[in-house]
Amino acid sequence: MDPGNPQYHTRNITKVVGGYTKTCTDLAVALYSQAVDKVFPVASTRVAETVKLLENTFRSVNIGLVNEMAIICNKLGIDVWEVIDAAATKPFGFMPFYPGPGIGGHCIPLDPHYLSWRVRLEGYEARFIELAGQINRSMPEYVLNKVTDALNDKGKAVKGAKILVLGVAYKNDINDVRESPALDFIKLLQNKGAKVSYHDPYIKDLSHEGLSMKSVTLTDSTLKSSDAVVLITNHKIFDYKRIAGKAKLVIDSRNATKKLGKRKNVVKL
Amino acid sequence: MDPGNPQYHTRNITKVVGGYTKTCTDLAVALYSQAVDKVFPVASTRVAETVKLLENTFRSVNIGLVNEMAIICNKLGIDVWEVIDAAATKPFGFMPFYPGPGIGGHCIPLDPHYLSWRVRLEGYEARFIELAGQINRSMPEYVLNKVTDALNDKGKAVKGAKILVLGVAYKNDINDVRESPALDFIKLLQNKGAKVSYHDPYIKDLSHEGLSMKSVTLTDSTLKSSDAVVLITNHKIFDYKRIAGKAKLVIDSRNATKKLGKRKNVVKL
């Protein structure tokens, strides 16, 4: 499933099924064939589960890799977004992934670790899964460092700064905050003493492990009075030109302001 | 470049160029536009080089990931090839890579380590590059273990066993052995005391760091008299039905015998 995907939905995503017995598989194929275009039977429930885990792990690892590339490019003074766009011109053998403030949702941050746990029982460490998890989990802190540095350039501390978080859903154009990196990021900011508010047109209330906030209205004065506006979720509905036009400082963790070109008040990952 | 690719060649692979100055970039674009369909200018030579390194690293990491998945699936008694084929039914967001005896060629095993070296100067370790390198370099030894186990099941040692290596080029349908995992694999076998010969229709002689061999003819008697036939490079020209039909034991590191179905005398990665 890919929530929010306008092109692919339940019916036209091939369903992989594996049964405990051959009869189970046949019944599952018969059932799913009523609702989806293509059903792909595999040898067992264990194979079917591993398919899901490979796919989730592929995404977690590739996001981890590109997050590490963002960190590396930052150290070398290279624009990682330009690098990815140029690499994506290759017509085969490459698939672009993009850096960001971390991964969320109910699959990619969680499922690979089932596999990791299972193979540890066999005495093996799933090293790619562990590394991807470490790097992806470190991204909210990396974005915090970007915010700290950008404020520091203006002689300001994070403590006491008014920070507006734009977007708290775990990805664009959906209303789901499960495992969203925004949750960790807001807590990190609060721990540093920032005055944090957020705006998300799809998430009116945020309640999570001691966090209890309401989405503020995105007025010009909210934008202007914030010491930093941090873009965490790149909802298409946001008016990025207006945001970058009104805000003193924007930390754009998703390259959402790409079309605006380079701006002095916008810092990217 | 993708040697041996029938669809994409110099003209229809977009060329990314970055110049030292704006004039350099303009001149490079003018030059390349004569020979290739699309030229994609980037901000600097450093960005252009990083594009190449991202692409190479993407491939190295994804091959490393799927090699680790092969090791994990082997421990869990799951067919990794079936898992990959099923995952590849996903119509977006997934790109299949395949496990094998290691990586070769003049780019993927080498170039990511330029980046790794460069960022180490900045005090950062490129962890994905290092991990991919470690796992990919360990694959010839992993294939050796498969050979050892399969011979052991028959009460045979590697020492003194007649082993025929099929394919020594670093990938299928080309005549290039640079950094080929076959070179490491043959040395590992020789170090264990095996009597190694090889057949590769594209590589008549093999000379490399103390190795000096000639491709043998692939007769029925060569196949029958080998204790194990190890498929390292999946050249399309090979007649896999004949090979699996005549050989006592086949270690297939590339799933080249996929179309033959499961066979008792064929062991896969």
Short description:
Chain A is α/β, with parallel strands linked by helices. The first copy, chain A, has helices spanning 22-33, 45-76, 80-87, 111-120, 127-137, 139-153, 181-191, 220-225, 240-246, and strands at 15-18, 39-42, 162-166, 195-199, 205-208, 211-214, 228-231, 250-252, 266-268. Chain A is built from nine helices and nine strands.
CATH topology of the largest domain in chain A: Rossmann fold
Distance between the termini of chain A: 28 Å
Helix and strand succession of chain A? EHEHHHHHEHEEEHEHEE
- Output the CATH class name of the largest domain in chain A: Alpha Beta
Parts with pLDDT < 50 across at least 5 consecutive residues of chain A? none
> Percentage of helical residues of chain A?
40-55%
Secondary structure class of chain A reads alpha/beta
Instruction: Report the CATH superfamily of the largest domain in chain A.
Output: NAD(P)-binding Rossmann-like Domain
Strand percentage of chain A: 5-15%
- Can you tell me the number of structural domains of chain A? 3
- Overall CATH architecture of the largest domain in chain A: 3-Layer(aba) Sandwich
Beta-strand segment tally of chain A: 9
Number of helices of chain A: 9
Largest interface: A-B, 57 and 57 residues
The biggest sheet of chain A, with number of strands, parallel, antiparallel or mixed sense and barrel status, is: 5 strands, parallel
Morphology call of chain A? elongated
Radius of gyration of chain A (CA) equals: 21 Å
**Strand sequence of the main sheet of chain A, in spatial order?**
4-3-7-8-9
Provide mean pLDDT of chain A, rounded. 96
Oligomer: homodimer
